[in-house]
Design a protein that fits this description.
By secondary structure, the chain is an alpha/beta fold. The chain has helices at about 5-25, 40-50, 75-80, 95-105, 135-145, 150-160, 175-195, 200-225, 240-245, 265-280, 290-300, 325-340, and strands at about 35-40, 55-60, 85, 110, 230-235, 250-255, 280-285, 305-310.
């Protein structure tokens, strides 16, 4: 005896069958593109632009010091699996060429700072013998993706500390206008490696750039409202030059370019004298640096310790500077609060 199903139930079963057939016949979703970024700030920009279409491995993580980083075997595995490597360039990642070689990475390298107008470190010619002759070295990393690693490798072998940056300041992300350049370079790098999803990458970059530009306009207004004579601060190392140029703030670094550099007693005395002479209102520590020297300067000058700034690395998740935008917003709030009359 044949069972006769109600019409409504027959219709539902037929619809379910059609959906199952369509699902079985549909092409499987494309796997996320495996990419790597050299350090946390750049990694966050890649994450914003790549979205769910990328599987990201970041080599130097939150609160990590990319100046003095020592790669691990795990980093080599991450890099070997990646199809695209995003680097800052401008000789920032002196340790990276050796890692690229040991990992066997054979993918595409994208220099995020390509197109940035590099600034020179103040007083670079006086920093050490031979440093003043390297004027073209830092610039090549912003413009020649194909030579980034080889050029960095030469510097890593040619200097005892392995952290030489040439005369170009690599901290270009400290200007949001440069952050826009980074985002565009990331989008084009992803689009070139993954043409099928190129439009998605570019649309995400467009939305992200709008947020960066909006924050940039807000930051300019914030500092324009503070008297120029008060826009002076001491920081741990020379990482905020682009920020200073963009927003009219003078930064006096207690240390030099690299976070593992130890200033002489004479240099510290000179900074203390300058802070007193210029009536610098605040000193700041960084999340990647020891606070000892900055706290000494504060004690001997009476300048206020303004708090922690994020310079070369994001904070851990759940803390104030866990993304590039949050990092910038936090730094601006800390600086503005300390510099207000």
């Amino acid at each position: 005896m044949r069972t006769i199903l109600p019409a409504r139930r027959r219709a539902l079963l037929a619809m379910a069958g059609l959906c199952l057939s369509a699902a079985m016949g549909a092409a499987p979703a494309a796997e996320p593109l495996k990419v790597a970024a050299s350090f946390s700030i750049l990694g966050d920009i890649v994450r914003e632009v790549g979205g769910a279409d990328v599987s990201l491995a970041t080599l130097v993580g939150p609160d990590g010091d990319a100046h003095a980083y020592e790669p691990t075997p795990g980093d080599a595995k991450k890099l070997a699996a990646a199809r695209v490597l995003f680097v800052n360039g401008l000789e920032f990642e002196a340790w990276l060429p050796r890692l690229v070689k040991s990992s066997g990475f054979s993918g595409q390298t994208v220099v995020a700072s390509q197109g940035v107008a590099p600034r020179k470190f103040a007083g670079h010619d006086d920093e050490g013998e031979g440093h003043g002759d390297s004027g073209d070295h830092g610039h090549g990393h912003g413009n020649e993706q194909g030579h980034d690693h080889d050029h960095d490798h030469e510097h890593g072998d040619g200097h005892k500390d392995g952290h030489h940056h040439g005369d170009a300041d690599p901290h270009a992300w400290q200007s949001l206008a440069n952050g826009v350049i980074y985002a565009r370079n990331v989008a084009e790098g992803l689009a070139a490696a993954d043409p099928a999803r190129a439009q998605a990458y570019r649309l995400r970059a467009k939305a992200y750039i709008e947020r960066l530009e909006s924050l940039d306009a807000s930051v300019r207004k914030t500092f324009a409202a503070i008297p120029a004579a008060r826009r002076k601060v001491v920081t741990s190392h020379d990482a905020f030059g682009y920020f200073g140029d963009a927003y009219g703030v003078t930064f006096i670094p207690a240390m030099g370019v690299s976070t593992d550099a130890e200033p002489s007693a004479g240099e510290v005395a000179g900074i203390i004298e300058q802070v007193r002479r210029d009536r610098v209102p605040a000193v700041f520590v960084e999340n990647i640096s020891s606070p000892r020297l900055v706290e000494q300067i504060a004690r001997e000058t009476g300048a206020k310790v303004g708090g922690t700034l994020y310079s070369d690395a994001l904070s851990k998740p759940g803390q104030p500077g866990a993304t590039y935008l949050e990092m910038f917003e936090w730094n601006v709030r800390q600086l503005a609060a300390a510099l207000q009359p």
